[in-house]
Amino acid sequence: MEKPLGGDEFAPSVTYLNTSKCGLLPRRAVAAVTALAEGLAAGTAGGSGSFEAVEDARSGFARVAGVTPDRVAVGSSVAVHVGLVASALPPGAEVLCVEGDFGSLITPFAVRGDLRTRYVPLADLADAVRPGTALVAFSSVQSADGRVADLAAVREAAALYGARTLVDATQAAGWLPLDAGAYDYTVTAGFKFLMGPRGVSYLTVTEEAQKSLPPVYAGWMAARDLADPYGPAGPLADSARRYDEPPAFLPYHGAARSLALLDEIGVDAVHAHATALAARFREGLVRIGHAPVPGDSAVVAVPGLGARQPALAEAGVVVSSAAGNLRVAFHLYNSAADVDRALDALS
Fold first, then answer.
1. The predicted structure's pLDDT at residue 47
2. Pick the CATH number of 7-26+266-346 from 3.55.50.30, 1.10.1740.10, 3.90.1150.10, 3.30.413.10
3. How far apart are CA 174 and CA 285, in angstroms?
């Protein structure tokens, strides 16, 4: 039987299958946030928080993303990172997106008003790249139904036509191995499969893409030398740190600990564990007469069953409703027993 990973780091009081909405915090993350909050209340924290914790989170995400820390910028939300990329596009540029993709990824392009934003079904994304496409912006795993994009095909098509790529890895990073360096940009919220508090996000930028991405949000922490915060920042950091937002220390103290746990377990191990549970759940759904969205994602969607979410919650099984789908997500802290409880509740 598939047992949870992570030992005694997690103690959910319900059958928690809702990581696509929000991940569980490990005990070590809760302890770190609590310690900082108590220090702030007592005046003993030595400031609002630790830059070392922010750098630990940056390095932790870099390991998950398969890049070096100098390619990672930290922030607070996917929408802000995407807005930075959108602001750098010239008027009239074509942005290719997926129909029904998450709003934080596509809205910053839509509100520009002077970009040509084109939407196609996920299955047609690679074939839809064409001469003149400036950017392909898509989620590696779709939020609404867990479908996994054909990443290799999209990369190949973008390279063929000289288009840049922006991947939202929010529903993937932490369970699906990520090679962020294969894309011009990736954006990732840290409060789902990365198990951090909300208010943490990551942007990766290749060295080549940095040449055309102005650091329009730069504050004093974007400077190469942080010793003097007064006046206009001197030379900016030679790394993606030039794109940092000022970090919210409380969530980053937690995120650093969550990423350390993920590093100890390994994304490959999480991938094998979570997808095995998802496969067990899909097989069980078919046995009881439901047709899930096919695939090998850790996120399982059942079209038309979204209305069952409240009843499942009453039974102690926490899932979500997304675009009319019943959405169930499996992560390192789930077990085969969780799968069976969800199936029993649906029966």
1. 86
2. 3.90.1150.10
3. 25
